[in-house]
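Dear H.,

Thanks for agreeing to be a second pair of eyes. The structure we're designing against is below in token form, covering all 276 positions.
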């Protein structure tokens, strides 16, 4: 018997423990994705067997935080998919400009690169001063990184290329100060952001938004959980507001699909008054 393999029944025990002990409910996440990540962490930290791993998670709060950091997906990039951001610039922001105040929610924001991307677009459209950007994630460690607005200088060339392709109007380097290996983004951007932990599985809506972005998060959820999250977004989005998803995600088979119309070719939908 291989004691270094996490079986699917072991995973179910762990998920039950996490829900009971810490209130984190991962039971509706994609099992295949979760299993890969838990197995990787188990091997990485050299546990002698599943019992030791389970005990550590139950009794060590610090290790539990490491577990959450490792199994939640934190892959992000500034201005990822430039075509998406070009559509925001040309089609969505001119509509948002007609509102007296703009509230935008980045759900599952990870370390915040997409929130900073949006702040740059809003600033260039002359809308940042009347906007508030909320960035939330289940993982408190990545939220703390997002608040600081400090990213590796090594990523700036890629981000600058994305910025140019997205229709950027300035020199991208004007938005940050480089110091050794780190780039710190300007306080004029961070001053319009609120970052906090939020669990899409169990937490409620906390505001009414004109635009909600949740890109490349739902692909890791089972269909029932996706439906639950879509209902949360629908409740949180005002009429004629916009919902933006990742390139492999869709509203098409969701319970709220009838109240939304896709905007162009990008994965952006607009909420309409009534089903149809």
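And this is the sequence the design step returned. I haven't edited it by hand at all.
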């Amino acid at each position: 018997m291989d004691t270094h393999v996490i079986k699917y029944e072991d995973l179910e025990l762990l998920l039950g423990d996490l829900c009971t002990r810490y209130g984190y409910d991962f039971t509706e996440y994609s099992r295949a994705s979760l299993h890969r990540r838990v197995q990787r962490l188990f091997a990485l930290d050299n546990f002698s067997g599943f019992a030791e791993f389970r005990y550590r998670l139950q009794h060590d709060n610090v290790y539990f935080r490491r577990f959450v950091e490792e199994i939640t997906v934190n892959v992000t990039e500034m201005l990822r998919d430039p075509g998406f951001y070009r559509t925001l610039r040309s089609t969505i922001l001119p509509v948002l400009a007609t509102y007296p105040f703009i509230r935008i929610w980045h759900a599952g924001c990870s370390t915040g690169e997409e929130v900073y991307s949006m702040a740059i677009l809003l600033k260039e459209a002359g809308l940042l001063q009347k906007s508030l950007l909320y960035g939330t994630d289940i993982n408190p460690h990545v939220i703390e990184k997002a608040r600081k607005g400090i990213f590796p200088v090594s990523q700036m060339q890629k981000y600058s290329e994305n910025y140019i392709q997205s229709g950027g109007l300035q020199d991208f380097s004007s938005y940050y100060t480089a110091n050794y290996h780190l780039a710190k983004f300007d306080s004029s951007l961070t001053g319009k952001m609120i970052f906090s932990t939020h669990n899409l599985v169990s937490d409620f809506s906390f505001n009414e938004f004109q635009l909600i972005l949740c890109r490349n998060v739902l692909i890791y959820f089972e269909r029932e959980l996706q439906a639950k999250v879509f209902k949360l977004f629908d409740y949180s989005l005002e009429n004629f507001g916009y919902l933006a998803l990742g390139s492999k995600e869709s509203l098409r088979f969701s319970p709220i699909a009838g109240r939304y119309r896709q905007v162009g070719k990008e994965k952006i939908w607009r909420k309409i008054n009534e089903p149809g």
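Two observations from my side: The longest helix spans residues 8-22. The mean pLDDT is 90.

Warmly,
E.
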